[in-house]
From TrEMBL:
Source organism of this protein record: Lentzea albida
Highest taxon above the source species: Bacteria
Protein name: Fe-S cluster assembly iron-binding protein IscA
Gene3D superfamilies: HesB-like domain
Renumbered residue ranges of the record's region Disordered: 84-105
Length: 105
């Protein structure tokens, strides 16, 4: 299942609080789109849950909504936030560490 870092959850909460409507019903939505060269790409939007979507409850009440194909793609990923070249927050997706790796004994 997609893991959401506390920093990503904070940015999601900021985005949803600025959107119109009830922020409790809105989350960051991932959809899988096919580009012209047949490469899959993730589309991000602020949206409400649609039937069939998978929802991840993130830290601080943030909500990540994924359409089924995006949920399958993001199953072993971590959603984080990094700063872009201009210092603005940008979402970043990375692979989760396999169990037992990346942890010190």
């Amino acid at each position: 299942m997609l893991e959401v870092t506390p920093m990503a959850a904070e940015v999601i909460n900021e985005l949803t609080s600025q959107s119109e409507g009830t922020s409790d019903d809105i989350g960051l939505r991932f959809a899988l789109a096919t580009e012209q060269d047949s490469q899959a790409a993730l589309e991000l939007s602020l949206s409400e849950v649609v039937d069939g979507d998978e929802v991840v409850a993130a830290p601080a009440g943030a909500k990540v909504i994924m359409e089924p194909a995006a949920a399958q793609y993001l199953d072993d990923k971590v959603l984080d936030v990094r700063q872009d070249d201009e210092g603005n927050p940008a979402f970043a997706i990375a692979r989760q560490d396999p169990p037992g790796e990346g942890q010190q004994s």
